[in-house]
Design goal:
single chain; alpha+beta; seven-stranded mixed β-sheet; two-stranded antiparallel sheet; 11 strands; about 10% strand
C-alpha cells in the first residue's frame, strides 16, 4: 500500500503543458522558476509519501467518531494535519496580498494531486478550506476577511460548506434553513444540513462554515437564498476564541468510501451567522467556492486513479499465473498482453485527464474566464469518471485479491466513487457544459478551444522526428479528433433542448477524450522542442492515447447524432420487468 508521487509526470506537464511564462507575466504571481518548482514538487512528494500516505489505511479502517456533539478524527490525522499546516501547504496558490505564497493555481493542482493520492479523505479538509477562503476573499466584508482569513490561511482554522438538506440536494431551491436578522449585524441560523464534509473534527482550533439559509421575506426558490459565515467558536474583537456557537454535529454518515472524512449531519439552533455578500445572492457567492472545488474534485479523480494504478502495477510485477506468450514459467502477469493492455490503458487515461485539470488551472491563472468556465465541468466530470474507471481496472488486475480488503485495491475503488457525485453530480456537469458553457454563447468558447488545439497540430508535426521520436500518429489523431469534436459541437448547438440534454453526458465524455489527447500531444511536442529528456517516454504514452483512446470518440459521435430518441422511445413502464 505504499505510494510514490508521480513527480516526473506531473513536473513534465507543469513545464510543457502549462504556459508558465505567460502566467508569470501576468504580474499576479511570484516567479515560478524551474528551481522553485522542482523544490516545491519534491517537497510535496516527500510530504505526501512520508507523512500523509501512512494515514490512509488507518483512516479507512478506523473512521472518525462522534461523541456528545464532538468529532474525533481518524488515528494519525491530527498529527498529519499539524505537519501540513507547519509546512505551509495550505497557502501554495493563495494570493500573496492575503498571506499566500502567490503561486499559480497550476502549481496547486500539482501539489494537491499528490496529497489527495496519499489520502483522499484527509485531503478534503484543506481543499474545502482553500475554497472557503476564495469565497470569503471575494464576497465577505473587510471585517470578516480581517477576522477569519489570516487563521484560515495559516491552516489553524479550517473551512466547510453547508449546502445540502434532506429535501435540497442538487437543486438548492428548496433550502429551508432559516436566517433571522437580529438587528446587530448578526443573524440567527436555524435548520439542519446533511453531507457536510469535515463538518466537525479535532484537527483545527476552529471551523468556519459557509451556510446557505433563507430570510423570512425572501422569495421562494434559489433566488431567495443568502450565504452566512458561522464559526464553530465565536471570535472576539482581539481574535481570541470565545464561546461555542449554537450548532453541532448530530450524526456521522456510514459511507461506501472516504471513511476517514467525517461527513456530518449538522444541526443549527439559532447559531450566530454573518452575512457574506448580498441578501438573496447566496448561490452566486457560494459558486466561487464550488467552482474551485469542482476542479479539485477532478484532480481527486486523477489522484485516486494514480494510487490505484501504482498498486496494480506493483501487483502485476509480483503475481505469477499462467505462462505469458514467449516467456518461461514463473513470469509475472504483467507479461500477459491483456494485463499489459489494462495497465497502459490506466496510465494513458490518467494522463489525458490530468492535462485537462492543468489546462483549467492555466485558464484561471491567465484570467481567461470563458476557457476556465468551459473546462471546469469537463475537468470535474472526466477526471472523476476516469478515477472510477481506473480504480475498477486496478481491482481487475488484482483478480480475486482485488476483491478483498487486504491489498487496498478495494479501498481505492470505494474512495473513488464519491467524486462523480459530490460538488455537483457529473450529470449536472454535463448539463452545465452544454447549457451554460456551450449553447449560451453559441459555442464561441468551444470553437476558440478547438482553434487553439488545431494550431497545436502544427507544433506536433514540427516536433515529430526530433530525437527519433515519431508523433505522426498523434498529429493525425488530433486532426481527426478535433473534426469529430467540431461536428459534435454543431450537432448539440442545433439540437432541441431535449436532444441536447439526452446526449449531454456523451458529449462531455467525447470532449474529455479528444481535448485530453490533444493537450497531451501538444505537451509532448513542446517538450521535444525544448529538448526535455523525458519527452520520449511521454511520446509513447501520447501515441497509445492517439491509437486506442481518442478513436473511441467516433462511436460517441454516432450516439450524439441519435439524440434523445433512443432514450424516450423506450417506454418508462418497460424499465421494470417486461
Amino acid at each position: 500500500m505504499s505510494f510514490t508521487p508521480p513527480v516526473n509526470a506531473i513536473g513534465y506537464l507543469l513545464r510543457h503543458g502549462v504556459r508558465l511564462d505567460d502566467i508569470n507575466s501576468q504580474g499576479e504571481f511570484e516567479e515560478a522558476s524551474p528551481d522553485l518548482l522542482d523544490a516545491i514538487l519534491g517537497g510535496a512528494a516527500d510530504f505526501a509519501r512520508d507523512v500523509i500516505a501512512p494515514t490512509n489505511w488507518d483512516g479507512d479502517q478506523h473512521p472518525a467518531t462522534l461523541k456528545d456533539g464532538d468529532v474525533t478524527a481518524s488515528p494519525g490525522f491530527k498529527d498529519a494535519y499539524a505537519q501540513f499546516v507547519e509546512g505551509g501547504w495550505q497557502t501554495v496558490s493563495l494570493p500573496s496580498e492575503i498571506g499566500g505564497m502567490g503561486l499559480p493555481s497550476a502549481v496547486s493542482v500539482a501539489t494537491n494531486e499528490m496529497i489527495y493520492a496519499a489520502n483522499m479523505a484527509l485531503g478534503l479538509c484543506p481543499m474545502l478550506t482553500s475554497s472557503a477562503i476564495k469565497a470569503i476573499e471575494t464576497h465577505a466584508s473587510e471585517t470578516l476577511k480581517d477576522t477569519y482569513l489570516p487563521k484560515m490561511l495559516a491552516g489553524e482554522w479550517t473551512g466547510a460548506m453547508c449546502l445540502t438538506e434532506p429535501q435540497a440536494g442538487s437543486d438548492l431551491g428548496p433550502v429551508r434553513t432559516k436566517a433571522e436578522d437580529r438587528g446587530d449585524g448578526t443573524y440567527a441560523i436555524t435548520g439542519q444540513k446533511i453531507y457536510i464534509t469535515w463538518g466537525d473534527h479535532d484537527c483545527a482550533d476552529n471551523i468556519v462554515h459557509l451556510v446557505l439559509a433563507r430570510l423570512p421575506d425572501s422569495p421562494e426558490g434559489s433566488r431567495g437564498i443568502s450565504l452566512f459565515l458561522c464559526p464553530k467558536y465565536l471570535v472576539g474583537d482581539d481574535g481570541s476564541l470565545g464561546e461555542r456557537n449554537d450548532f453541532r454535529a448530530i450524526g456521522l454518515e456510514h459511507k461506501l468510501g472516504i471513511h476517514g472524512s467525517p461527513t456530518c449531519v449538522m444541526e443549527f439552533d439559532g447559531a450566530t451567522g454573518y452575512l457574506v455578500g448580498e441578501v438573496d445572492r447566496g448561490l452566486a457567492s457560494m459558486f466561487v467556492m464550488m467552482n474551485e472545488a469542482r476542479l479539485f474534485v477532478g484532480v481527486q479523480g486523477v489522484a485516486i486513479g494514480e494510487r490505484a494504478y501504482q498498486a496494480a502495477l506493483h501487483y502485476a510485477h509480483e503475481r505469477v499465473q499462467g505462462v505469458p506468450p514467449g516467456h518461461e514459467p514463473g513470469a509475472p502477469i504483467i507479461d500477459h498482453p491483456d494485463v499489459r493492455r489494462m495497465l497502459i490503458d490506466m496510465k494513458a487515461k490518467l494522463m489525458g485527464a490530468r492535462t485537462i485539470c492543468f489546462a483549467t488551472a492555466e485558464a484561471a491563472d491567465l484570467g481567461d474566464l470563458a476557457r476556465e468556465g468551459l473546462l471546469t465541468p469537463i475537468a470535474k466530470a472526466f477526471g472523476s469518471d476516469t478515477g472510477v474507471d481506473v480504480a475498477s481496472i486496478a481491482v481487475q488486475v488484482h483478480g480475486g485479491m482485488g476483491f478483498v480488503e487486504e491489498t487496498g485495491a478495494a479501498q481505492h475503488y470505494r474512495d473513488s466513487r464519491i467524486a462523480p457525485i459530490y460538488e455537483g453530480t457529473n450529470g449536472i456537469q454535463a448539463i452545465d457544459l452544454i447549457g451554460r458553457k456551450l449553447r449560451r454563447d453559441g459555442g464561441e468558447a468551444m470553437r476558440a478551444l478547438i482553434s487553439d488545439l488545431r494550431e497545436a497540430v502544427t507544433s506536433v508535426k514540427d516536433a515529430s522526428g526530433r530525437d527519433d521520436v515519431d508523433l505522426s500518429v498523434c498529429a493525425a489523431a488530433v486532426e481527426r479528433g478535433l473534426e469529430t469534436l467540431a461536428t459534435a459541437t454543431d450537432i448539440v448547438l442545433n439540437a432541441t433542448e431535449v436532444d441536447a440534454l439526452g446526449v449531454a453526458t456523451t458529449y462531455l465524455e467525447l470532449c474529455g477524450k479528444i481535448v485530453g489527447g490533444s493537450l497531451l500531444a501538444k505537451a509532448v511536442a513542446r517538450g521535444l522542442l525544448a529538448g526535455d529528456p523525458q519527452s520520449a517516454a511521454m511520446a509513447s504514452l501520447a501515441r497509445y492515447h492517439a491509437l486506442r483512446i481518442m478513436p473511441t470518440a467516433d462511436g460517441l459521435l454516432e450516439s450524439i447524432r441519435a439524440g434523445a430518441d433512443a432514450v424516450y422511445d423506450f417506454p418508462r413502464d418497460q424499465l421494470a420487468d417486461l
